[in-house]
């Protein structure tokens, strides 16, 4: 009597005999290759500190931009309320009289051309505001004719009160040699029938005050055009025509070495 076949064990062998496939042949054993030079994969740890710093930087930038926008919005609101309540206007200037006491142009053959001038200027500074007071520093006054400088002078510092007019006087004079281009430009203007053109340019700084508010000093330039002058005959001064004259006021903003 034969013994029944024994059950296979957990290692796939029957009574110590290797396991076979369906054809009775032994099943192939899979070999595992080991490469000592292969680098072992280690997952990189996430840098939480770097992520935290980046989030903090983004948060700071966001709040900084938001603060700047809020401040600009607040300034715009305050400016709008200020304009609605007080209706501020820029100061006004006008030329009332310009007397030409001397306008001598000498052109000798053996030396450079020479110009000697003397002007008496009268102008009015007006403050049309009901709530603003202007405080002016001394003015630098320059006269031009077709971009040729023909006179220099100054005006003293003064205060312009609310709804006030101030009359100012200045003496402009010049004595200089002219180059060929300046001489040609000046001669062309002197030949005009309506008289040679004169431009008055004034530079100063002004500070404004309203109630308890005071501004910082800002530069302004006053440019008056439309003046026509004539060369005086003899010792009597000539009076320039200022009927068509007009003055405009521009802010002078200085950034580093440049003025705008």
UniProtKB/TrEMBL annotation:
Signal peptide: none annotated. It is a single-pass membrane protein. It is found in: Membrane. Residues 1-33 are annotated as: Disordered. GO terms for cellular component: membrane. Coiled coil: none annotated. PANTHER family: LATE EMBRYOGENESIS ABUNDANT (LEA) HYDROXYPROLINE-RICH GLYCOPROTEIN FAMILY, LATE EMBRYOGENESIS ABUNDANT PROTEIN LEA-2 SUBGROUP DOMAIN-CONTAINING PROTEIN. The lineage of its organism: Eukaryota, Viridiplantae, Streptophyta, Embryophyta, Tracheophyta. This is Chaperonin CPN60-like protein. Keywords: Membrane, Transmembrane, Transmembrane helix. Residues 125-224 form the Late embryogenesis abundant protein LEA-2 subgroup domain. GO terms for biological process: defense response to other organism. The chain crosses the membrane at residues 56-86. InterPro entries: LEA_2 (IPR004864), NDR1-like (IPR044839).
């Amino acid at each position: 009597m034969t013994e029944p076949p024994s059950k296979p064990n957990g290692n796939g062998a029957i009574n110590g005999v290797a396991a076979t496939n369906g054809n009775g042949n032994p099943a192939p054993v899979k070999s595992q290759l080991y490469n000592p030079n292969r680098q072992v994969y280690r997952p990189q740890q996430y840098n939480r500190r770097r992520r935290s710093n980046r989030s903090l930087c983004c948060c700071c930038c966001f709040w900084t931009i938001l603060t700047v926008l809020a401040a600009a919005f607040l300034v715009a609101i305050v400016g709008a309320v200020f304009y609605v309540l007080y209706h501020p206007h820029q100061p006004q200037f006008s030329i009332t009289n310009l007397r030409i006491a001397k306008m001598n142009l000498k052109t000798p053959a053996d030396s450079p051309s020479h110009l000697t001038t003397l002007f008496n200027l009268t102008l009015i500074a007006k403050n049309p505001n009901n709530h603003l007071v202007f405080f002016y520093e001394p003015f630098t006054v320059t006269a031009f004719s077709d971009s040729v400088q023909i006179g220099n002078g100054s005006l003293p510092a003064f205060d312009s009160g609310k709804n006030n007019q101030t009359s100012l006087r200045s003496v402009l004079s010049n004595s200089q040699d002219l180059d060929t281009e300046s001489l040609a430009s000046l001669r062309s203007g002197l030949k005009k029938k309506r008289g040679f053109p004169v431009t008055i340019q004034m530079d100063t700084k002004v500070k404004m005050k309203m109630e308890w508010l005071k501004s910082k000093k800002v530069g302004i330039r006053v440019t008056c055009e439309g003046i026509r002058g004539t060369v005086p005959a003899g010792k009597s001064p000539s009076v320039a025509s200022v009927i068509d004259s007009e003055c405009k006021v521009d802010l002078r903003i200085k950034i580093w070495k440049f003025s705008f």
